[in-house]
């Protein structure tokens, strides 16, 4: 009996112990789970406090930003650089050879903008460069591959660099255009209209002289010589007896009559590489054009305004030296297409001596004018004539 009672008590005791242990474990587990939310809550509270602090700091920064922006906005935003296409008055053709990608940053209103890329096309090599004329050395380090200076009174050669080279002459052509127009003796007061036929379909250059514009023959001639207006020169050739083909034939006939054996013309503007000549021939053309008072006057004007029937247009000379009081220029003409490079012909008086200066295939927008200055300085101190040419053995005079 006692044994049975003891066994029962033992069983009850074991159950009690196990229950106590189970309860203890349950309490411990519950306590740990209760502690976790509290810790998470504490972390959440800390995070919220941190975010609030950051938000307050950001608000303070934004409050200060308007003052900085206002200060920055006083500066004019930099203009965004982009590919430039011009409708120039001179015979500017697209300058292209190989493409390379250039990126520019646009910053409107002093804010960071996106990166934009444009295609930049460097200028193609001229005919003179292609044939190595620029490799001819000269003591003045000229940027022109062809340079020729002649005393207008005596025809003495004062400077010679590749004067016999036959190269494109661009808008130097317009001196011949002007002579043919004046030789026709057609009324200078006649009205001439610009049409689609006068557009440049070879180089695709633009013009300020819109289709439908109407000017007198005199005004067309004026802006063709002074500002190298291509559509004016094209329209003049159309209003010639027999039309444009007859005009081009007259240009070549005039060149032949002047003894210009290296010269050929295909149009009246110079917007073609097929209008070619040599520096020696161009001296003959300048001397002939110098005999026309209107060519002397129109080519050396600084500016001229015309009314096209639609609006007023203000034109300026393409020759920067015309605005330089230190130069005494009696006649001039500029020109440019890629194949010809930068060109310039002038009649000028240097130290009281009348000279004709021819510069062809110059590399660089202002290099022809700088070369003219170098030649004038050379003439100021001239001793013996300077001949540096690929054909040095030839006769000196044209």
From TrEMBL:
<dbReference type="InterPro" id="IPR012338">
    <property type="entry name" value="Beta-lactam/transpept-like"/>
</dbReference>
<keyword id="KW-0732">Signal</keyword>
<feature type="domain" description="Peptidase S11 D-alanyl-D-alanine carboxypeptidase A N-terminal">
    <location>
        <begin position="140"/>
        <end position="362"/>
    </location>
</feature>
<dbReference type="GO" id="GO:0071555">
    <property type="term" value="P:cell wall organization"/>
</dbReference>
<keyword id="KW-0378">Hydrolase</keyword>
<feature type="signal peptide">
    <location>
        <begin position="1"/>
        <end position="34"/>
    </location>
</feature>
<dbReference type="InterPro" id="IPR001967">
    <property type="entry name" value="Peptidase_S11_N"/>
</dbReference>
<protein>
    <submittedName>
        <fullName>Peptidase S11 D-alanyl-D-alanine carboxypeptidase 1</fullName>
    </submittedName>
</protein>
<feature type="active site" description="Proton acceptor">
    <location>
        <position position="174"/>
    </location>
</feature>
<comment type="similarity">
    <text>Belongs to the peptidase S11 family.</text>
</comment>
<keyword id="KW-0645">Protease</keyword>
<feature type="active site" description="Acyl-ester intermediate">
    <location>
        <position position="171"/>
    </location>
</feature>
<keyword id="KW-0133">Cell shape</keyword>
<feature type="binding site">
    <location>
        <position position="333"/>
    </location>
    <ligand>
        <name>substrate</name>
    </ligand>
</feature>
<dbReference type="GO" id="GO:0009002">
    <property type="term" value="F:serine-type D-Ala-D-Ala carboxypeptidase activity"/>
</dbReference>
<feature type="active site">
    <location>
        <position position="228"/>
    </location>
</feature>
<dbReference type="GO" id="GO:0006508">
    <property type="term" value="P:proteolysis"/>
</dbReference>
<dbReference type="InterPro" id="IPR018044">
    <property type="entry name" value="Peptidase_S11"/>
</dbReference>
<dbReference type="Pfam" id="PF00768">
    <property type="entry name" value="Peptidase_S11"/>
</dbReference>
<dbReference type="GO" id="GO:0009252">
    <property type="term" value="P:peptidoglycan biosynthetic process"/>
</dbReference>
<feature type="compositionally biased region" description="Low complexity">
    <location>
        <begin position="75"/>
        <end position="86"/>
    </location>
</feature>
<feature type="region of interest" description="Disordered">
    <location>
        <begin position="44"/>
        <end position="102"/>
    </location>
</feature>
<keyword id="KW-0121">Carboxypeptidase</keyword>
<keyword id="KW-0573">Peptidoglycan synthesis</keyword>
<keyword id="KW-0961">Cell wall biogenesis/degradation</keyword>
<dbReference type="GO" id="GO:0008360">
    <property type="term" value="P:regulation of cell shape"/>
</dbReference>
């Amino acid at each position: 009996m006692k044994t049975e009672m003891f066994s029962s008590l033992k069983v009850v005791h074991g159950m009690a112990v196990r229950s106590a242990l189970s309860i203890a474990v349950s309490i411990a587990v519950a306590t740990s789970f209760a502690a976790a939310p509290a810790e998470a809550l504490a972390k959440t509270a800390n995070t919220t406090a941190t975010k609030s602090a950051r938000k307050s700091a950001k608000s303070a920064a934004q409050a200060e930003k308007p003052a900085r922006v206002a200060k920055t906005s006083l500066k004019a935003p930099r203009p965004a650089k982009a590919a430039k296409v011009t409708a120039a008055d001179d015979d500017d053709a697209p300058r292209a050879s190989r493409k390379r990608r250039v990126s520019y940053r646009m910053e409107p209103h002093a804010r960071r903008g996106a990166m934009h890329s444009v295609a930049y096309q460097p200028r193609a090599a001229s005919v003179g460069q292609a044939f190595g004329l620029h490799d001819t050395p000269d003591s003045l380090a000229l940027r022109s591959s062809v340079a020729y200076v002649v005393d207008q009174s005596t025809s003495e050669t004062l400077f010679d660099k590749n004067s016999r080279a036959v190269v494109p002459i661009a808008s130097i052509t317009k001196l011949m255009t002007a002579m043919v127009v004046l030789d026709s003796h057609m009324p200078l007061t006649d009205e001439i209209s610009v049409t689609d036929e006068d557009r440049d379909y070879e180089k695709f250059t633009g013009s300020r002289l819109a289709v439908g514009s109407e000017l007198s023959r005199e005004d067309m001639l004026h802006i063709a010589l002074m500002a190298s207006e291509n559509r004016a020169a094209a329209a003049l050739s159309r209003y010639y007896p027999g039309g444009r083909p007859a005009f081009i034939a007259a240009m070549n006939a005039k060149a032949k009559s002047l003894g210009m054996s290296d010269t050929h013309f295909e149009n009246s503007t110079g917007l073609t590489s097929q209008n070619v000549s040599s520096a020696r021939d161009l001296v003959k053309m300048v001397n002939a054009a110098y005999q026309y008072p209107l060519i002397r006057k129109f080519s050396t004007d600084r500016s001229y305004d015309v009314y096209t029937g639609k609006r007023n247009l203000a034109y300026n000379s393409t020759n920067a030296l015309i605005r330089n009081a230190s130069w005494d220029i009696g006649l001039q003409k500029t020109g440019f297409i890629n194949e010809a490079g930068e060109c310039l012909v002038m009649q000028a008086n240097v130290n009281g001596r009348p000279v004709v200066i021819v510069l062809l295939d110059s590399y660089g927008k202002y290099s022809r004018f700088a070369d003219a200055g170098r030649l004038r300085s050379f003439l100021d101190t001239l001793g013996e004539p300077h001949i540096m040419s690929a054909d040095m053995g030839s006769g000196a005079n044209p």
